[in-house]
Amino acid sequence: xxxxxxxxxxxxxxxxxxxxxxxxxxxxxxxxxxxxxxxxxxxxxxxxxxxxxxxxxxxxxxxxxxxxxxxxxxxxxxxxxxxxxxxxxxxxxxxxxxxxxxxxxxxxxxxxxxxxxxxxxxxxxxxxxxxxxxxxxxxxxxxxxxxxxxxxxxxxxxxxxxxxxxxxxxxxxxxxxxxxxxxxxxxxxxxxxxxxxxxxxxxxxxxxxxxxxx
Amino acid sequence: xxxxxxxxxxxxxxxxxxxxxxxxxxxxxxxxxxxxxxxxxxxxxxxxxxxxxxxxxxxxxxxxxxxxxxxxxxxxxxxxxxxxxxxxxxxxxxxxxxxxxxxxxxxxxxxxxxxxxxxxxxxxxxxxxxxxxxxxxxxxxxxxxxxxxxxxxxxxxxxxxxxxxxxxxxxxxxxxxxxxxxxxxxxxxxxxxxxxxxxxxxxxxxxxxxxxxxxxxxxxxxxxxxxxxxxxxxxxxxxxxxxxxxxxxxxxxxxxxxxxxxxxxx
Lengths: 214, 266
Fold this sequence. Notes:
Chain A is flat and about 70 Å long. Chain A is built from 9 helices and no strands. In chain A, helix 1 runs antiparallel to helix 2 and helix 4 packs across helix 6 (about 125-140). Chain A has one domain (about 5-215): MetI-like fold (Orthogonal Bundle), CATH 1.10.3720.10. Chain A is mostly helical. Chain A has helices at about 5-40, 45-60, 65-75, 85-110, 110-120, 125-140, 140-155, 165-180, 180-210. Chain B is built from 9 helices and 12 strands. In chain B, about 35% of the residues lie in helices and about 25% in strands. In chain B, a hairpin with a 2-residue loop joins strand 4 and strand 5 (about 65-70). Classes of the chains: A mainly alpha, B alpha/beta. The interface of A and B includes residues 120 and 126 of A.
């Protein structure tokens, strides 16, 4: 079995990895932003405590354990997700905690005068958030968001443990039938790199462009 | 005398047990420039920030053309503080220029000026940008319309901030130490703009350490110390011929020379 046959055999997994990245990434961004907003601007001490607890929990427990809990654990009580959905949810929940920290730190690094100037100009708090604070926060958190996205692409590999048909899942199957261990896992590595590099490059270009306008 | 444009009655502001404003009352007539001077910690900036409710007063009342600022009648016949959303319309009528400019770094100079008219006042975007350009020209910053704020000097940034405030079409403009953060050589360009606004007949309240500027540009001066108004009167009278000992001591201190030596100007 040659390199291109293996590559072809793993391509389906790469497509799944991209789906998981997109699904989990979007979910993590949206939930992370909501949590960071509540953490930074919310008035409820109880809610801030709950968010802190969530973030700490997610940071300190392996993502694989969450995937198992979502996929096998919930199935045991009658809630069944497909491996793909469980992977998106699981990685998304972990990512939301990481991005919540990143976004909260970025919000806190914006001078309070930025918001005051917006309010003094007659913007409502929501408009100040939408047009002044969130755009600055996203710029400030771009390097960390880039790191997170690269990490997420690599982490899609753990979804193979719940039988999500991604690269490592196909690789293991191919190995058991062909025993071409080095070539197959080597090709899998190249595939991950081929997905991470364009994303890293895209973020790099974006950072450069926004630096010009900061 | 006509009804004042801005009226502050017995304004109090406390932070826990620390009382910063101890009952300030003042009036501003339409077209008048009022300067607040006084030592650091005297409450001038807090007083200014209470006018547009960036600091919430703990007592007293503020009226702009007889409309109470920051308070709404409640069901029991009293008053309740407005939320920031409810305050937005009133704040549009009270422009504010900050010591540190606070231009929004992710927007071009033109968009900094046009944002509030477009979003807060729902002006047509093309019309708002046209107006924003005119305001930038007014402060000699039209040629920088498409630059980002970080490429500008402090003086240029403050002039853009003034244009941003003018674009709100406010009834009164508050200046919170607008030149304190500037290098000495950049102070003049900002003071010139403020002076020209005063000459145009804008209604302005100016917190400043530039005592000579206050004397030459303001119609009236209020000297504050320890959260109270110590002395109030026509600018030249208060600064050239202060009556109160505390005012005299302050003016001597900031100029490092006797008050009499400042009396070269009329």
